[in-house]
Amino acid sequence: MMLTFFAQLALAGQPLQLSGSCPPSFELTAQNQCKLVTRYDLYDSLQNKGVGGTQTSLPEARDGFTPQQIDLGRFLFFDPLLSANHQQACASCHQPALGFTDGKALSTGAHGDVGTRSAPSLWNVAYLKQLFWDGRTKTLEQQALIPLFAKHEMANTPEQVLAELMSNSQYPALFRQAFPDKEQLDLTQLATALTAFQSSLISLNSKYDQYAHGYHLALNDEEIKGMNVFRSFVARCSECHTPPLFTNQQIAVIGTPEPEGMPFDPGAGSEAGKEKWRGGFKVPSLRNIALTGPYMHSGRFATLEEAAEFYTKGRGHAVPKGEHLQLHWHIWEPKLSPEEIKQLAVFMNTLTDQSLLPAIPQTLPSGLPLPAELQTTNDNNKGIKP
């Protein structure tokens, strides 16, 4: 049997080497930093927030990480060593083939616990200013460690994850490659590496993007009709899902119903002093939305058509009795026809782009197997490298 790449290196006594190259769409600077470059850099935008027509700029993205930090983050993202039971990785809930979600209405934790919200997509997360459905954190570094130590998610502890990383035969040397100025491995480096990898997940070459950059044949007539509905003053989808990021990055109270039998989720309004945000959640980006169902914070709707239909059923129609929510003023009664709802779904399918999918490691530094849900066919793992 042919030995794996890592096994061959281990037998040869050679240390593993992290990549010295930036991911696609990034340029390597003289300071060994990966700088994001996109065609949207050529455009201007109102208040630099990506508000306007098709040729508007994106907000500022997180970049400037080294290739080694990004590659270390890639290994960590897929490695179940970070979970308490060594069976679940970050990628278990954020699977590349599913738009970096898990295809579930409610995500499942390391011990089988079912959560209360769906896993959000990580595509273009480098641009986001609020993380989690309730917007509770403002940086990826803050966000990165929370799932690791949440009892209903990866259920680990800071002490255990550090001990296992430091006692591993490969990871201490990999951390030294990624953080040569640090004497000892710590949680800050772990958070930075995960942030570096997640910031490299860029999806900006969909059929819509090709159309926006001037190739109008990229969209067919039905898709253009859907885009016109999306941008119309009647539907007003684009006022919250603002191109080109397809989110305005705000919290919105829209009155989404919970799945049958689930209690009302207060969302961003769960803390004292934030009552006006009760029932409010972050406006998600629609990039790769066709891959990330079911939809809404709790996976209430199975299809894009169902999600679009919710908005045309009347303002506040799904708000439970006894709840007095301050619904977003964009939520009203557009009275879209079934044909227009179908056209919206057709247009949202044009936002799919996975051309820059990262390579899933075949072998992990920990020596553990990939989580079961990631052990898929080669068709789903094109471009795999060690």
Automatic annotation (TrEMBL):
Pfam families: CCP_MauG (PF03150)
Gene3D superfamilies xref list: Cytochrome c-like domain (1.10.760.10)
Top-level lineage group: Bacteria
Residue ranges of domain Cytochrome c in the record: 68-195, 221-352
Subcellular location: Cell envelope
Keyword presence, Iron: yes
InterPro entries assigned to the protein according to its UniProt record, in alphabetical order: Cyt_c-like_dom, Cyt_c-like_dom_sf, Cytochrome_c_Peroxidase/MauG, Di-haem_cyt_c_peroxidsae
Assigned keywords, A-Z: Heme, Iron, Metal-binding, Oxidoreductase, Peroxidase, Signal
Main location: other
Protein name per the record: Cytochrome-c peroxidase
